């Protein structure tokens, strides 16, 4: 199997054709980054998007939070969920929503994608706190965790047949996904993601995280944010593709040295992340409904 030169340019063209992210997303991203931001402003922004507002209320009234039917106002919902959780929901609903699943196969993939993204976001929070990153950095890592694989989602949603071939090829040849993507598509999902992030005018840090999350990493440069995301992603990669035939590379020495976790700490991290993925599974059921 060889690269079809038209594949790369048609992927890049369809990224450019993606609709803009709803305004509310960009504004909420800015607002939640601001330590002074207040509940009322966020409430007003979400209030302008009825579909979003009703999803937020549905989530907060779910069994997941044990408050069934008690929360009727957005303001209350924001206080209960917290700004960070609200931001994560708004971002996922909007960014993932532009890439709709069409076939049953894609619907399955969508769930795996959601779990992997929420699992990665949760893992970034645990790692960044343990490593003493600033609150701002923890937040960026978390949003990066949520959105890092949008390029993959885009490929699934828009080039489904081709991407399935990439997966099968990786499985048969026991090659890493990124190697096969480069070979068959001409670019990797992280490069697609970087182009999407630029197209969507996401903050520079996010462009850097999404575009760089799979490496390669220079042995001389320590990048705590990117390393946090890389480890978090690695821990939840098993959630993809429903197969263990596709190899995943252990993070390189520069990343693991920076992390400096004992085998016991790594085990603990894995257990914590698994619990978060279980929570995300319940949340997905609610959001997809
Ligand atoms: Fe990735
Ligand atoms: Fe990932």
The helix/strand order is HHHHHHHHHHHHHHHH
Low-confidence segments, ≥5 residues, pLDDT <50?
A: none
What percentage of residues falls in helices of 4 or more residues? Answer: over 70%
Mean pLDDT: 86
Tally of alpha and pi helices? 16
Q: Assign the structural class, choosing from mainly alpha, mainly beta, alpha/beta, alpha+beta, or little secondary structure.
A: mainly alpha
Gap from first CA to last CA: 39 Å
If you consult CATH, what is the topology of the largest domain? Answer: Hypothetical protein af1432
CATH architecture descriptor name of the largest domain: Orthogonal Bundle
What is the CATH H-level superfamily of the largest domain?
Answer: Hypothetical protein af1432
Which term fits the overall shape?
globular
Kindly list the characteristics that best describe this protein.
2 domains; 16 helices; mainly alpha; single chain; globular; Hypothetical protein af1432; binds fe (ii) ion; 289 residues
């Amino acid at each position: 199997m060889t690269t079809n030169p038209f594949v790369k340019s048609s992927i890049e063209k369809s990224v450019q054709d993606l609709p803009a992210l709803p305004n509310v997303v960009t504004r909420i991203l800015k607002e939640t980054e601001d330590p002074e931001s207040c509940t009322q402003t966020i409430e007003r922004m979400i209030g302008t998007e009825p579909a979003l507002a009703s999803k937020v209320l549905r989530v907060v009234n779910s069994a997941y939070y044990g408050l069934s039917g008690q929360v009727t106002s957005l303001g209350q919902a924001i206080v209960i969920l917290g700004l960070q959780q609200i931001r994560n929901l708004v971002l996922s609903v909007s960014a993932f929503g532009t890439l709709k699943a069409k076939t049953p196969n894609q619907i399955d993939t969508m769930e795996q994608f959601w779990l992997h993204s929420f699992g990665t976001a949760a893992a970034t929070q645990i790692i960044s706190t343990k490593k003493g990153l600033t609150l701002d950095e923890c937040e960026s890592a978390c949003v990066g965790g949520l959105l890092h694989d949008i390029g993959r989602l885009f490929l699934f949603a828009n080039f489904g047949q081709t991407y399935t071939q990439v997966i099968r090829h990786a499985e048969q040849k026991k090659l890493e996904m990124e190697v096969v993507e480069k070979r068959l598509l001409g670019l990797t999902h992280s490069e697609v993601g970087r182009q999407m992030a630029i197209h969507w005018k996401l903050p520079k840090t996010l462009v850097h995280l999404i575009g760089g999350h799979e490496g390669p990493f220079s042995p001389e440069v320590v990048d705590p944010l990117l390393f946090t995301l890389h480890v978090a992603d690695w821990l939840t990669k098993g959630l993809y593709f429903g197969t263990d035939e596709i190899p995943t590379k252990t993070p390189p020495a520069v990343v693991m040295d920076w992390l400096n976790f004992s085998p016991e700490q790594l085990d603990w991290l894995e257990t914590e992340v698994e619990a978060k993925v279980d929570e995300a599974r319940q949340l997905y059921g609610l959001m997809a409904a």
